[in-house]
């Protein structure tokens, strides 16, 4: 990077706003400290006068209590000075230059280009991430602090060398220029206020110990707490102003760091890597979840990164994403295919701008690539496989029994994962049309005497246009729900954009009315697609003598779908009724609420009793689920002991409730899939018959 990247006008605007918010905090804080010092002095003077007026054990105790109350308030306002924010390193593995010389040389080259200092330490983690971090505190605003670099191997495994260069340059870009220092100040002020509002465990212990010394001490501790509640109410307002200013500045800092990265590596590497990281993270989480689900059987992998690469490329193929240099090319067209929302709410609480906004800014910069190194970033590491195995071992170290673990080979993972993925998907024939919607109920008249010509095959029904229509309807439903929440004041915004036009809150009602009309028209069109499908597949079923089988599958699925809301009702009511356990401590209130729980439990147990004998749920009732549900249904459990909740019976309750929910969800999916698979088999048989007779 030859020249210093200049900050934008927006950056300056947000920086000024952030500094003004800091000045507001300083003004409020100084006034509070002055008031606290004055109060401490008055209380101390009052205590001395009280003792001087009538010396006794009681007046001495009251005098000390008065003075202590003032001191407690003062400690509250000053405690942040001694507080340090220590980054948790338990999931990190430190590496040194002698272990990875190529990587350190690569980092050194980027550091020189960005004109910043080499990190104090370099750490590796298992996940899809990269960051520069440091332990911060009040004094870090004034004293130089050395930064540490954190590199996630899940990220390295899914980018090229040049993309990795851009990502690291972005991270170092946050600390490369003096103009970025303001972000550090605002961040630390934010931490100060947060400390006084929410990080009070040790302070509360001190106050409790002080109050526990004597009843007259506790009086003044209670009074001090009341005063501090007022102080916190003031600080919450200030925190909102400072936090909003910080987050606004933080978003501009991301754009600025992107420009730094583009000057080092060119615009293209960040533009290609940013959209892929979601897919890379999905693949990583999928593999980790796969082995966590097998932790009871002590099945692990020695190296999860070949699996991550396989899953990422597998998902890319499933979504028709091309590969370039062995990595998926994720485009804006792909991400927007499944997100048809036209509602844009500027999230003032977001610390990062939207990926599409960052890509647009990089595209506008249009800085050419300087070193087009498309080799996998993993080539920067020596002894790659051993390093990956060490990181994998650290990730799963607390989840398995080392003496009993079975290491699963890659080919076995591929076989099992692929089968499970297929089991959880609907046939490709439907082109994602039914992924988030159910089919309409059977229209027997249209099936018996179709008004239009029967489709030649399923591809003529489940077109890309039909699939887009299904996702558009889903987005409309969600947009309408969000707009209704906005109308109720559930979001602190004044305006929003919809389909490129800016709206004010008072315009929500007519907009929702229009959107509901559009949604109803879409639903009618989707129902037409359902009926075309039904006419087509019942014509195939009639040709193959399978009409009754298809009708039974429809009836079972539609019946279960129609019952689902009522079946879920006792589960949701029970979870809501049990929520008091998280906060309620008064015995009388607890007993009253447990009586209400009993009434809801009775309905849930009736539903469970029916579930255990209803063949609709047979396939989802594993032995574990059946035994848990049967035990819960047959026993009258007691949830409260003499002085505490009965953890064992509560565990039984929550396990049964969870299994009940799982059975409902899985049964709905299984019957839906059974219907769709049967129809796909009818299509396959028809194609085979046509081929044989051709």
TrEMBL record:
Gene3D superfamilies per the UniProt record, alphabetical: Metalloproteases ('zincins'), catalytic domain
Organism: Dawidia cretensis
CDD domains: M48_Ste24p_like
UniProt xrefs under InterPro entries: HtpX_protease, Peptidase_M48
Keyword annotations from UniProtKB, A to Z: Cell membrane, Hydrolase, Membrane, Metal-binding, Metalloprotease, Protease, Transmembrane, Transmembrane helix, Zinc
A molecular-function term among this protein's GO annotations: metal ion binding
Cofactor(s) required for function per UniProt: Zn(2+)
Signal peptide range in chain numbering: none
UniProt EC number: 3.4.24.-
GO biological process: one example: proteolysis
Protein name: M48 family metalloprotease
EC primary class: hydrolase
Residue span, Peptidase M48 domain: 98-364
Membrane-crossing residue ranges in chain numbering: 20-45, 57-82
UniProt KW Transcription regulation keyword: no
